[in-house]
Description:
Layout lengths: L1 E3 L4 H24 L6 E3 L1 H10 L4 E3 L2 H11 L2 E10 L2 E3 L1 E2 L1 E6 L14 E4 L5 H13 L10 E4 L3 H10 L4 E5 L2 H7 L8 E3 L17 E2 L2 E4 L5 H13 L7 H9 L2 E5 L7 H7 L3 E2 L4 E2 L15 E3 L2 H4 L9 E4 L2 E3 L5 E7 L10 H7 L1 E2 L8 E6 L3 E8 L2 H8 L7 E4 L7 E2 L1 E7 L2 E11 L4 E9 L2 E2 L5 E6 L12 E3 L5 E3 L4 E2 L8 E2 L4 E2 L9 E2 L4 E2 L9 E2 L4 E2 L10 E2 L4 E2 L9 E2 L4 E2 L9 E2 L23 E3 L15 E3 L4 E2 L8 E2 L3 E4 L6 E4 L18 E2 L5 E2 L3 E3 L5 E3 L6 H22 L7 H23 L10 H8 L20 H9 L1 H18 L6 H14 L1 H8 L5 E3 L5 E3 L11 H37 L3 H7 L1 H4 L9 H18 L4 H22 ...
Parallel strand pairs: 1-2, 1-3, 8-9, 8-10, 22-30
Antiparallel strand pairs: 3-13, 4-5, 4-13, 4-14, 6-12, 7-10, 7-11, 9-18, 15-16, 17-19, 20-23, 21-22, 23-27, 24-25, 24-28, 26-27, 28-29, 28-30, 31-32, 33-34, 35-36, 37-38, 39-40, 41-42, 43-44, 45-46, 47-48, 49-50, 51-52, 53-54, 55-56
Amino acid sequence: IGGLAIQGAAVFESSFSPTFQDFLTRRLNESHGLEFESVPLDFNQNFEFVSSGGVDFIFSNPAAYTCMAVEFNLQTVASLINYRKGNALGKFAGVIFTRQDSPFQTFDDLRTANVEAVSISGLGAMQLQQAELLSQGLNIMTDVPRLTFAFNQNKIVQDVELGLADVGFVRTDLIDRNVANNLTKWEYFRVIGQIPDSDFPFARSTAFTPEWPIGALPHVTDEVKELVASSLMALDRFSPDPELSEPAIAGNFASWSTPMNYFGLLDMLQSIEYYDQSSKKCLRSSDEYEAIKCPAGFVKKARDKVFCEDCRTGYSCLCSPCAKLRDPEYVLKASLSSTAWMGNVDVGQVNNETIVASSCERMSVCGQVFTGQKLRWVLLDQIGTASRLAINAPLVTSVSIRTSVDGPWLSTDVRNITIEDADTQEYSLEYEAQGSGTQVIQVDINGQPAALSPVVLEVRPPPLRQIDCPPGRQPDFDGVCTACAPGTASAGGGAPCRPCDPGTSQPLAEQSNCEACAVGTFQESPASLHCELCPPGYSSRGKIGSLVCSACDPGQEAPNNGSERCSLCPRGFYSEEEGSSHCVQCNGGKGTTEQGVTDPGLCICLPGEFLADASESNVPSALGGQCVPCLEGLVCPGGNGPPLQKAGYWVDTAGHGHSAYRCRDKWQCPEGPLGWCSDGREGRACNNCKEWHRQGTQGRCKPCEGVDVLPAMLLLLATVLTGGVLLSFVHTNAARQRLGQVTVFLTAGQIILMLQLMAAMRNLDLQWTGPALYVIEFLDIFAFDVDFLNIGCVVSNDGAVLTFAMQLLAYPVFAALLMLVWVCISRLGLEVTWNDVVNMNGLALLTLYMTLTINSLLPLQCIANPNGTFSMQTQPGVICFQSDEHWALMFMCVLGILMYPVAILTVALRATIMYPSYISSGKGLLIVNRYRFLFERFRASRYFYGVSYLLRNTLLALIPVAVASFPTVQVVLLAAVLLAGMLVQIRTWPWRTQVANVTDMLFSTAVVLFLVVAGPILSSESAQDRQAYAGFLSWSFTMLLAFAFLTLFVTIALFLW
């Protein structure tokens, strides 16, 4: 085991041989046959023994060890835990100290101090202090007048105490050990730059470093490494076993620990330039000269000049190792040489206006001379060869000068001169100024640009004696006026012929000026005869005197030669690149939203069009990838994406193409992606609610809840109560009924008929808003719209067949309940005859005749879809005459027609025809009493009006079916039938009471007025116009209902109260 003996071999042997030699041999010899020997080494021997493999383990200071670990691939085995002043310490630092009475207080004061350290390899007594001072801007190797290496830290303490050194560097606990040995006292000293640290027992001036390590060389086996490590870590100063405590006491340490991290020291060594990262090598203790790094502006003296001559024996001393270079090191100057001028040059003016500087600085104007004038450039070396050799400065081997940026390098002549009794050299070059303008003079020394280079020289044409020449001519060197050549011009007098500048031209000789290039032309060369036309794709941007034509920006074009300006690509065209002569047309019929488009990706289908797909069934293959007009039922906002589904339409996305179907309203099929339905809806045209869903507001379907079966139960109860009221009414003898009661019942019947007509009109193509939306929901009852019963919450799916069946069976169910009421009343002993039951059913059938007829014809009420098919207006998901579902509905439709309009009209027509014969027969009154529901409402002389009334209502029911796809025609026909019926009513005045006749006329008039207003709005093709009048129509529709109920309330108030 080699160990760094910084205090001498004897001290090392006494301190660490008990551990490294005696203890390890005793512990591992008998069990493993290992024998250990401790070898004291100095700093240089450290590296020699490790590099040669002369030891198996090395114990050294952390910095030297880290260098060896990197260079020779050592592996750390353990780290020392020192014992100082009763403390077990795994780290130490450096101390910068001076005598208590010295004037040195701060780090900066060290610039005038004689400093003493142990050596350049000393970590706690040199390197830590050097790194700390360097971070404060002080280089201890060059910035102090004297740096002494004592090679022993105890000597450093003694020298500072005796005044042989101003400042000393030692590790943190060294002064305390000297004090403990009565060699000195702390009162003699003062720490400079002390770092306050209550957790560390010693004064310090630097950062910490880990304690000394022991490491194994690569050839040592892992088993031996582990044995040594475990044995060292077993040592304990406080162990009761002398075998384990005595080595620690002898070495003045507490114990050993697992290896600490030492590679952070590489950064410190690299900062003080002791470690070379590229070669992975550190300076050795003897490399004192190599450790000297002079700052900028200084050079390191020769090896025999840096060490002090008066250094004491056993010490090494550095005295001002860096020499400052003479400032400036080189001086460049120019001087004039004799010039023989010829021609009409004005020599006097040349001499007066020539300026040369005595010293030229970098990037400065060194002189102002004239073309043809001779100069002498001189570079003065202010140090000289002899002085450079003395201070180890680089020698000047060559000086070259270049008089233009791209000119040749010219060698100089060297001459020895003497300045201030010092021998030196100057390097000169004879030179004749050429050309005109600003010239850059460059100087190279030893093949490298000089710090003072480049400099600037202003060269002008020599002034000529004044000779007055006419415009277009110039004086030559002999004073004769000569004509300016084409491509040049002169203003006359003594002005020379100057070449036309770029951007101008002159095709003629003997001209006074050059002409600026016209718009659309350019000229980039001087002395030009003509300007060139801008090529296609380029323009002069509307300017004259262009040197070059500018390329058209992307999104622009210039199709012709000589374009003054580039024009923006028109809509539908684009240009991606600069300099385009023509814009490219967007393919596929696409367009652009603006001019000057630069990206073909901005070619899109314009609003009102969409990008067709050749795979779509309703798109011809030739139009694939083309923009085509928007189809009915679609919304085309523009762009290359798919179209949207228009509100009120549903587009089938299952197949190819855009197959659009009309929906019930815009709420169930909102505008959005193709095939989109309102929440909770599904199926073609969003016809059905999802399973276990019920109708909600604004076209949505909501999940069923427990209370959703309540409407069906309430309807059942209302039906029973209504049956009881009707039985009571029909059971009353007509002769005993008060006219007030009759008037109220007749008015109520007229209102119910009006409500049925309004229910039929709710399907008109109008945008209902405001309170009309609630009126529409209320009228669903009078149209037998079973959706309000929440059938989807009774059965899982309320399809079209089930819905239509329930509408047809609504009255049979009512009749059955009526029979049940009759049976119950009869059981209670009340006298209700069969004629009463027949009259009650007849009254109900006549009252609801229009709704029953309309509902029977619903499968025939088909409207056209944009895709060419027809679907039911009330069930838009059912395709008319093409689907099995519609044929089932048609079968039920025929049954419904036979059940209701045919049967009712047949019975009413037969009874009306037979009425006179019934009256004249013996049983006439009995028969007529059975048909009270038909005749009792009218005057006896107008018994036939019941059939006329039914025929009018039949026509009103047929109109929405016959012209389902033509709402405007519906309005006209409805108004016409109502007017005709009203004329008949006014002419016959059929109702039993005057009030009933008046109310019938008023109701018909009100509905006709509404239809007259709605007709023009329905005929408008502008959706905006319809939207504008939507509120007015909705309020008008609401007022119809309000007028009807107001009339009923007035009638009740007048005739019953």
